[in-house]
From TrEMBL:
Residue ranges occupied by any HTH araC/xylS-type domain in the UniProt entry: 218-318
Keywords, ordered alphabetically: DNA-binding, Transcription, Transcription regulation
Organism, scientific name: Pseudomonas lutea
Stored PANTHER family: HTH-TYPE DNA-BINDING TRANSCRIPTIONAL ACTIVATOR EUTR, HTH-TYPE TRANSCRIPTIONAL ACTIVATOR RHAS-RELATED
Domain of life per record: Bacteria
Transmembrane portions of the chain: none
Function: Regulatory protein of the TOL plasmid xyl operons. XylS activates the xylXYZLTEGFJQKIH operon required for the degradation of toluene, m-xylene and p-xylene.
Gene3D superfamilies the record matches: Homeodomain-like
Name of the featured protein: Helix-turn-helix transcriptional regulator
UniProt cross-references to Pfam families, sorted A to Z: HTH_18
Length: 325
């Protein structure tokens, strides 16, 4: 966390709540129980791509999602009932339970009067980058979590201990706050979610013995993910990761069982694969290869065949056929 802040708002009028979300660019359709006076409190702890929101709703209200968002909500309802409707999953109601919602599937939500929740919002790209770093290779399949965890699940107690530590961090005041300590709290939340909450990629974590990797490995992976379309030297990655090129080589061999440049190649192949699957009639596969740093098209085709068991032109042909249909 390079920057963090805390904000608290108290809404006694539904119109103020509408304005608040409109200013955030979300613009949901707010649904208020007209027979109740409106009262909703929200405290938000912001942590660079991750947010902790504590809410208390004395009056019942709901919303229908309007804007496109790309986040995961990890919500625990301490009191009252939270209702969520998700495409493909239908409606779920939670009370004293943990619910994991993919905003891509979210249709609407509702809180009964007296509902108290803690919700962690994590930007999907951030979570997917962390998962790729955790398993040691780029993963382009979206994570699908089991939406509701039973009350006996140990995931939320783990989460709550970190949530309490985050609140203590913010309450400690500017003089005592440490960006390094804050970054570890953020990392702990991500790892706890990925390792303890069941999802469609859980087997990737359980089928291999993993060791906690140093921070410079995570920084190196993050740099590669953000700069895959640019010319990158190993010295560039090492500088960003605050280590030497030699140490970076040793670290990737130990923790990723590959070299930094081979890891970067896997990322670039994945990006090229996504482009080939998209509507790419305006581009050739050779131009896509060049876009992702493969100037030798024959070598690109060789690597692509090894990774996806087909040639790039075959992937593009299948994509074109799908568009025609």
């Amino acid at each position: 966390m390079t920057s963090s802040n805390i904000s608290s708002v108290h809404f006694k009028n539904a119109d103020f709540l509408r304005d608040y979300y409109n200013n955030c660019g979300l613009s949901p359709e707010i649904k208020v129980e007209s027979s109740k006076s409106f009262d909703y409190k929200k405290t938000t702890y912001s942590m660079d791509g991750m947010y902790l929101c504590s809410t208390k709703s004395q009056s019942g209200w709901g919303f229908a999602k309007q804007a496109v968002t790309d986040v995961y909500f990890i919500s625990f309802t301490h009191a009252g009932v939270s209702d969520w409707e998700m495409g493909g999953l239908g409606r779920v109601s939670v009370s004293q339970q943990m619910c994991i919602i993919d905003s891509a599937n979210l249709i609407q939500g509702h809180y009964t009067p007296g509902t108290f929740t803690d919700t962690i919002m994590i930007e999907a790209p951030l979570l997917h980058r962390e998962f790729s770093a955790l398993v040691g290779y780029p993963c382009f399949d979206r994570l699908n979590f089991v939406p509701v965890l039973p009350k006996s699940s140990k995931t939320w107690p783990l989460f709550r201990s970190i949530v309490d530590a985050i609140r203590l961090y913010f309450d400690s005041g500017q003089d005592l706050q440490s960006p390094i300590a804050a970054s570890y709290l953020k990392q702990a939340l991500l790892l706890t979610l990925l390792e303890s909450a069941p999802h469609n990629q859980s087997s990737s974590l359980s089928t291999k013995t993993r060791h906690a990797h140093p921070k410079f490995i995570s920084r190196a992976v993050d740099y590669m993910q953000h700069n895959a379309d640019k010319p990158i030297l190993i010295s560039d990655v090492a500088d960003y990761a605050h280590t030497s090129s030699r140490n970076l080589q040793i670290g990737f061999k130990r923790y990723k069982d590959t070299t930094p440049m081979r890891y970067l190649r896997m990322i670039r192949l994945g990006r090229a694969h996504n482009d080939l699957l998209a509507d790419s009639r305006s581009e050739t596969w050779q131009s896509i290869a060049a876009k992702w740093g493969f100037n030798d098209t024959l070598l690109f085709a060789k690597y692509y065949l090894q990774a996806y068991q087909e040639l790039p032109q075959q992937t593009m042909l299948k994509s074109t056929e799908g568009i025609i249909k």
